[in-house]
Amino acid sequence: MPNSKISPKVRLHGLDHLRAFAIGFVFIYHYGRIFYAPETLTDIGKFGWTGVDLFFVLSGYLIASNLFAEISTQGINLRVFFTKRTFRIIPAYLVILLLYFFFPSFREREALAPLWKYFTFTQNIGLDVRYQGTFSHAWSLCVEEQFYLVFPLLMLILFHFKLVNKIFLPLLLLFLSGFIFRLYNWIHFVSPSIASGHIVVSWYKWIYYLTICRLDGLIIGVMIAAIFSFKPVFRSKIEPYGNRLLASSFLVLAASYYVCDDEQSFSASIFGFPIVSLGYGLMVLGAISRDSILYNLKSAVTQKIADLSFAIYLSHKIVLHLCQEHSVYFIAEKDSWQMFAICVLASITAAYILNMLIEKPFLKVRNMILRRIGK
């Protein structure tokens, strides 16, 4: 989940709004799903799990845009790419992981997965939330890191053979393969568990958390970046329709809401994720189109929340757990709106501290390293 800046001179305000919306949607979903919450908030956040899919689309677009820009000027430098990823993701991630490890009272569920799975970003593989539910939201980081381990290597091969602008075919094939993998896993692993009553566990393990089944958003984000980078004619035709694209995204997401009403159903498992990702892809297209409302709307609030979104995502379950565990000190009921407001403020404060003490210093170190290796 990289920073929403494409370059030091250009900030896409539309993407700030989407990042702020995505973290807010995920926050509400987890609050209502895992912790005590007002019933209305739980109803509002029912579809909030899709905020992660929006993050995937945003990540795919931003990372690929930067990579494509570098390809057009100086080729692919894997050392630079992985240096950027390492210093952007690892420091804050390790701080949260160590807090979970050394302070069991911070854990929102019973236990962590084995530490080596977090260190290798493989925690999402075979994840059973009944026994390893703490820091389960790291699964999305695992999906991203696994994808970004392979994606630049694919680009390196295409660059070597001067086929970078032909990236659309492998992306399309990878996107379509998701249907095949989800169908296979449904037939062989999820469906047989229905009779035993373990469908939820099997569904999360074989459909929801598994990388090969959750690449839809990342692929759509990369496709958008490829269109804007390699197909200027298409870009010029798309950009004037930013507001229509935003309207279309709401229609597609409304359809996906009904498809995914029962998340563990066959139709939601096979078709739900790509429809959700397509809806958010249209939203991102609208947000980066110069004539759209989101592109031209500036907000210091959403910009700040966007900057803190990764820190909020990492730390929010710890904060929510601690706030509710010590609700007596706040003189507020756990399922009250007052407690929700306290949790929101506490989560933003914790994220700000994490951003100031860990993220920003390490980004400065990253920039020093990049200058030394010629970036």
Fold and architecture overview:
There is one protein chain. Strands 1-2 form a two-stranded antiparallel sheet. Helix 1 runs antiparallel to helix 3, helix 7 packs antiparallel against helix 12 (266-287) and helix 14 packs across helix 16 (337-372). It has one domain. The radius of gyration is 20 Å and the shape is globular. The chain is an all-alpha fold and 375 residues long. The protein has 16 helices and two strands. Strand 1 and strand 2 form a beta hairpin. Mean pLDDT is 93; it is low at 1-8.
Rounded Rg: 20 Å
pLDDT < 50 runs, ≥5 residues:
1-8
Could you give a short account of the major beta sheet?
2 strands, antiparallel
- Mean pLDDT across the residues is 93
| Overall geometric form | globular
- Count the DSSP helices: 16
Give me the strand/helix succession: EEHHHHHHHHHHHHHHHH
What fraction, in percent, of the residue positions are helical?
over 70%
Strand fraction equals under 5%
Major β-sheet strand ordering: 1-2
How many domains make up the coordinates?
A: 1
What structural class do the secondary elements suggest?
mainly alpha
How many E strands? 2
- CA(first)-CA(last) distance: 21 Å
